[in-house]
């Protein structure tokens, strides 16, 4: 079964086997991934450390897919340029971490990257009001960021629905992505609520049988669901 053409998949390498990163990314690419999600954590904005621009660059070289970099860091503006230079096609920054969000988003655009903005589970949709005209993608965290393998928070679905209405009223053109606890059971829920891009770490790279099996199961789970319905 094919997924609805409107739904895209962004496997998160946070759950990949780093010793085999190139193979992992290529397996996801061959199984139908649309882009690769790179999770950057600084030990301040979130209580964990993950990866820097060298990893984004290695992933970029290992596959032909676009790279989206999710910056879970304070002072995100300092990291925009290094990750753009490393080959990120999209840069996603958190509303909560940036005093000068407007400036950061414009800078991302000026570097030739797609512009993404992200909200944590406790952050309301209205915080995006002023920046919606500046973005290509809105990422709704469906867990509290910092770790892979956490439980999907159904309480975030109201925000996904509100954003879907908002984006559709504007005539579309902005992707609504979800991140955290996405698997074959929760992806259909998020898609029905209005998400059209699914980030998934554990359910892809941690799947029995490997990334290709995990991603296929995820793709099948949302077959026939239209995120704009
Ligand atoms: C969480 C990260 C996610 C993470 C998702 O802080 O932003 O992208 O990799 O992992 P899973 O799919 O395992 O919840
Ligand atoms: Zn992420």
Give Rg in angstroms: 16 Å
> What compounds sit in this structure?
D-xylitol-5-phosphate, zinc ion
Number of domains: 1
Uncertain segments: none
> Tally the helices: what do you get?
8
Q: Report the CATH topology name.
A: TIM Barrel
Q: Specify the CATH homologous superfamily.
A: Aldolase class I
Structural class by helix and strand composition: alpha/beta
CATH architectural grouping: Alpha-Beta Barrel
Mean pLDDT score: 95
Straight-line N-to-C gap = 20 Å
Largest sheet, spatial ordering of strands? 1-8-7-6-5-4-3-2
Total number of beta strands: 8
| H/E series | EHEHEHEHEEHEHEHH
Strand count, sense and barrel status of the largest sheet are:
8 strands, parallel
Task: Report what the structure shows.
The chain is α/β, with parallel strands linked by helices and 229 residues long. Helix content is 33%, strand content 18%. It has a single domain, classed as Alpha-Beta Barrel (TIM Barrel). The chain has an eight-stranded parallel beta sheet. Strand 4, helix 4 and strand 5 form a beta-alpha-beta unit. The longest helix is centred in the C-terminal third of the chain and has 13 residues. It starts with 7 loop residues before the first strand and ends in an 8-residue tail after the last helix. The mean pLDDT is 95. D-xylitol-5-phosphate binds next to strand 2, strand 8 and helix 7.
Characterize this entry briefly:
By secondary structure, this protein is of the alpha/beta class.
């Amino acid at each position: 079964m094919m997924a609805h053409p409107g739904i895209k998949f962004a496997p998160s390498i946070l759950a990949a086997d780093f010793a085999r990163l190139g193979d992992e990314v290529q397996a996801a690419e061959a199984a139908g991934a649309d882009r690769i999600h790179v999770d950057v954590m600084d030990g301040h904005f979130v209580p964990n450390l993950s990866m820097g621009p060298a990893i984004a660059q290695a992933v970029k070289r290992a596959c032909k897919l676009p790279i989206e970099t999710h910056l879970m860091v304070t002072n995100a503006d300092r990291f925009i340029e290094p990750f753009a230079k490393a080959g990120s096609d999209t840069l996603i920054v958190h509303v909560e971490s940036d005093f000068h969000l407007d400036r950061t988003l414009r800078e991302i655009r000026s570097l030739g990257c797609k512009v993404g903005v992200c909200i944590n589970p406790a952050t309301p949709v209205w915080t995006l009001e002023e920046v919606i005209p500046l973005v290509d993608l809105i990422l709704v965290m469906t867990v509290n960021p910092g770790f892979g393998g956490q439980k999907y928070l159904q309480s975030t679905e109201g925000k996904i629905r509100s954003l879907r209405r908002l984006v559709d009223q504007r005539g579309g053109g902005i992707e609504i992505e979800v991140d955290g606890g996405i698997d074959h059971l929760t992806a259909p829920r998020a898609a029905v609520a209005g998400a059209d891009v699914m980030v998934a770490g554990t359910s892809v790279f941690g799947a029995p049988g490997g990334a290709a099996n995990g991603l296929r199961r995820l793709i099948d789970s949302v077959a026939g669901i239209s995120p704009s319905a």
